[in-house]
């Protein structure tokens, strides 16, 4: 059976809360057959899905743009990343999740041991609107590659992108529907958390993550949480300032700053801070905002975020920050023009809270050590970056940052690497998507031991000989007692 892709102008069906149970039940019905295809069968299907997405990528780009207002290039980048991660999961699942032998250790040498990764069953994926294709495709394809079926709840702002993904996969799988979609607002997401899924993969704000975890608690449904961020860049005295400024402006402003691992704060060492700020301001001032073909970034997708951005900027300026480029007046709904703030108090919301707009805070510090301290001070811990000509010291600085991913002399590099685990600490969440860790998130690990022969000493029996335990203790003392 072939499912037609919904036309772009068709209204998305707001299936709402009551459909979650039905979708989970349909996904559960398909799961055994999907698992039965094995890694090789699923790999074939997922590769074909990837190819179909790329063949029809113009359609997907138009759909993403219509729902989010991002530029064509931002939407294209999203599609490229989605395909890259989907293909990686398809190809690498067998190696990451396949049967592997494990040593039984000296004391149990008479056993053979293998570890397998079995699918959990049905995985619920709740996605955000800012990357409505790329973000869900990560956990969806990882869960599918491991033999699970999936129910996706896209953001209420981007339901048709979610439906398009399910419809294209259905074109490949035919009657076997392994990806189901429930649309609607947060109540549909909460219903999915309570609908008996075997795991939730949530991506969204940290505030919603807390509600998701509360809903999951009733059935002890496990969850992987990809929450918000307040990513920092550290610019050392020896940094290539041109490269750092170029990267900072892109990471802060791409997709209108609506990126979970977007750059929101820079800590530049005193000796180079002024020059860095000049370079950033010059580059940011040249950016074009709008929905025309030459725009560098588009509108703010979530209307209520405009007020959050304006409030943070107003508050920072009122508290003594310098508006080096733009200011509260840059917020002209539905757009926000680039804003660069300097010398912002560290306890201002523009430094502590997610801004999710094209706003960059640049603060000066006396040393890299102080930069690390400030970068680590907040509740979030998602991504970060370090610019220095000494890559070795850059890696050392990176290791001291409380963040899930750190790029040295680049920004957001990890997102384009499908083998690299992605996820945060603290308010940014827990668990990992992408890479082997991301594949294992949607499986249960099972150890199978099988006794090859009966050993001379048998401590695990009430019929053991009187000398067995002393002999065992002697053996362990000989092995580990010195
Ligand atoms: P939200 O937290 O508002 O929503 C995320 C998803 O959760 C949406 O599908 C939403 O539905 C749904 N939802 C809302 N309420 C509930 C509930 N009570 N139970 C279950 N689900 C619910 O995030 P946004 O969509 O606004 O996305 C932006 C946020 O996502 C930012 O904070 C950003 O940093 C973060 N993010 C994190 C990423 C990461 O990998 N760590 C990547 C991308 C974004 P609805 O939209 O219909 O309300």
Automatic annotation (TrEMBL):
The record's section on Pfam families has: Aldedh (PF00171)
The record ties this protein, via CDD domains, to: ALDH_DDALDH
> Where in the numbering of this chain does the Aldehyde dehydrogenase domain appear?
15-448
Region (Disordered): which ranges?
1-22
Query: Hey, what's the signal peptide range on this chain?
Result: none
**What's the domain of life for this entry?**
Bacteria
* Assigned keywords, A-Z: Oxidoreductase
Similarity comment: family membership: Belongs to the aldehyde dehydrogenase family.
Name it. Aldehyde dehydrogenase
Q: Which organism is it from?
A: Streptomyces thermospinosisporus
Which lineage do the record's taxonomy fields give for this organism? Answer: Bacteria, Bacillati, Actinomycetota, Actinomycetes, Kitasatosporales
